[in-house]
Predict the structure.
Amino acid sequence: MSIAVAASARAVPYSRIRELAEIAMTMDNVLKLYFGESNLPTPQFLKDAAAKAMHDGFTYYTPNSGLLSTREAIARYYQRHQGVTLNPENEIVVTNSGVQALHVGVRCTINPGDDALVLTPAWPNACSILQMYGARPIELAQPLVNNRYTIDIAQLEAALTPRTRLLIYTSPSNPLGWVATVEEQQQLLDFARRHNLWLLADEVYERLVYDGRPIVPSILQLATRHDAVLVVQSFSKSWCMTGWRLGWLIARSDLAQKAAQLNEFVISCAPSFVQKAGEAALDHGDASVAELVKMLKENRDFCLSALRGMKGVTVPEPEGAFYLFPRIDGLTDSFDFCRRLLLETQVGLAPGVAFGAGGEGNVRVCYALEKPILEQAMDRLGRFLSAS
């Protein structure tokens, strides 16, 4: 045992969400609000599309960038929903999940020893992926102003180093539910242009917004074809396809083509029949998304009301995604709190500490599950807090 696992790999922290989930997986009858997924099944028309694709012979390798028909479907989707024209030949890469899109996107923007600014609290995978590639994530907590999260450009300016190459943000945000305004997007884009940085936008939750809009405007509406901008996307959230592992990356053509090449050494390509199901989601899935958003808004409002009635809890109203991020008075160890809650009540929440700077003292509640599960979870959480 004298030969150790590489120190660079050992330095990547374990996911505190997964650590909590692994405890839960040894238990029975857990209310699983710790992962970012719905318990609703994938819509039947998507299952049918995948079955038809397999029957039609889509069981072979595709180009590293994905089937041209899938990239064309993504381009149609952006033209229809965002008014953005994309070249499916060289600006779109189909990936084996949003996580994998994030991997190749980050790999194409940083070198070992570089720094990356990350707006937090945020899904922890971005920071861990940066560390996997030898970069240093610099976490910057988004300030809460008048009960709404926002951005602080002065804070970003102060965090710059000579090695800063990349800025990552998520809108709609996991876990905050924050949705960047067009003005905030422009500020981030101007900042990246001013300091010659890549700007990576995680827009995975763009369809899950509760102010009546069908979609959140993409940063691509503001960027030019020459801007150093990347967008990471996934089929997981809007179409209940978490287990299908399908996503995409949009970027300036030079980066997109390099990302496609790197796909060869990671996954070769996303499964061909899954790509065909993705096409069906993009072309015919708007009605199912609308139904999902209606359910999520009802769930959000129910959980928000329940949490605001609990002892020592404050929580802003989320504008998008499907999470609440309540702060609990006096909480200094959110992982221990979530572990005790799980063991004593069988309610599984994600600890705020898992989401980086600004997350401790909070917990994340995923409200993308069916109402009876949420009702039980809120009741048990309320009683647990009252007894604390």
Notes: The first helix runs from residue 7 to 10.
